[in-house]
């Protein structure tokens, strides 16, 4: 991932929580965003229950989803533990400057003071992480989307769609949102990707949406790619759709469509 801007370190703000653990149970309050920013400068951490299939060995580089292609444990000699998800934020001058995520293992020892918010509900954690992705201009924004999608029972696709379609999020974050949207199961995700291809003004985001659509398994994804390849007014998007359709040549619908193009019938 490309480091974001805004890693400047400036004046701190006064801490409103006592440094250390905030009890053994759930963090207090309904708004985790407020709890985090009330902690002031330094490190703030919390954990939450992972969705089935998300595991790691305590090293952020080895987090993977068992059921998804493309994620592999960096250190196979160590067991892959299914949760919890552990998030550590670094704040300075009231801004989340960086974010580390790992699944399983134990917390890293820190020489700087740390506020531990304990175990939080996955939906509260996801809301915080999505807010960081939506509004931050630091590297934390790029690192926040993946852990936002792996909390137990978190319905991630509406927020991913919102980020992908615009707003204040950085372009790299929007492209990541398109990728993770493509990984979310269900026809609604496919419908969301199609809407990005049709409505989004930035061509590169639309290209990423076509790629994400090409990774979908349901029949509607192929039909949507064929529609883009046949009807979209942008030649570059039609070419991208045709390219990815060509990677699925065992589908009779794809073969028929490619024959149509080659014969000049399309």
Look at the helices and sheets and give the structural class: alpha/beta
Kindly estimate the percentage of residues that lie in beta strands according to DSSP.
5-15%
**Number of structural domains:** 2
Helices and strands, in N-to-C order? EHEEEEEEHHHHHHHHH
Strand order of the largest sheet: 1-7-2-5-6
**Main sheet summary:** 5 strands, mixed
Number of separate strands: 7
Average pLDDT across residues? 75
Rg is 21 Å
Helix share bin? 40-55%
Approximate shape = elongated
Low-pLDDT windows of residues: 1-29, 65-75
Describe what this molecule looks like in 3D.
- The chain has 266 residues and is of the alpha/beta class.
- It has two domains: 1-154, no CATH class; 156-266, Leucine-rich Repeat Variant (Alpha Horseshoe), CATH 1.25.10.
- The protein is built from ten helices and seven strands.
- The strands form two sheets. It has a five-stranded mixed sheet with strand order 1-7-2-5-6. Strands 3-4 form a two-stranded antiparallel ribbon.
- A hairpin with a 2-residue loop joins β5 (85-92) and β6 (95-103).
- α2 (122-135) packs antiparallel against α3, α3 (139-148) packs parallel to α5 (171-183) and α5 (171-183) packs parallel to α7 (203-214).
- The longest helix is centred in the middle third of the chain and has 14 residues, at 122-135.
- The radius of gyration is 21 Å and the shape is elongated.
- The protein starts with 19 loop residues before the first strand and ends with a helix.
- The model is unreliable at 1-29 and 65-75 (pLDDT under 50).
């Amino acid at each position: 991932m490309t480091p974001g801007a805004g890693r400047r370190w400036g004046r701190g703000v006064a801490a409103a929580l006592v440094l250390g653990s905030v009890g053994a149970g759930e963090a207090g309050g309904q708004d985790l965003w407020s709890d985090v920013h009330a902690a002031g400068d330094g490190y703030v951490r919390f954990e939450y229950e992972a969705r089935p299939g998300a595991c790691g060995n305590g090293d952020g580089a080895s987090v993977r989803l068992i059921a998804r292609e493309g994620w592999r444990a960096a250190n196979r000699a160590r067991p892959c533990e299914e949760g919890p998800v552990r998030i550590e934020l670094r704040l300075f001058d009231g801004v989340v400057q960086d974010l580390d995520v790992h699944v399983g293992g134990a917390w890293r020892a820190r020489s700087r003071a740390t506020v531990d918010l304990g175990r939080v509900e996955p939906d509260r954690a996801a809301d915080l992480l999505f807010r960081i992705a939506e509004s931050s201009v630091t590297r934390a924004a790029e690192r926040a989307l993946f852990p936002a999608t792996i909390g137990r029972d978190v319905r991630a696709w509406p927020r991913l769609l919102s980020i992908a379609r615009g707003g204040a999020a950085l372009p790299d974050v929007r492209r990541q949102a398109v990728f993770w949207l493509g990984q979310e199961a269900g026809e609604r995700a496919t419908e969301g990707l199609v809407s990005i291809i049709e409505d989004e003004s930035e061509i590169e985001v639309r290209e990423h949406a076509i790629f994400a659509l090409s990774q979908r398994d349901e029949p509607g994804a192929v039909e949507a790619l064929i529609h883009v390849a046949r009807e979209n007014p942008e030649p570059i998007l039609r070419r991208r759709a045709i390219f990815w359709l060509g990677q699925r040549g065992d589908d009779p619908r794809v073969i028929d469509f490619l024959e149509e193009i080659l014969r000049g019938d399309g």
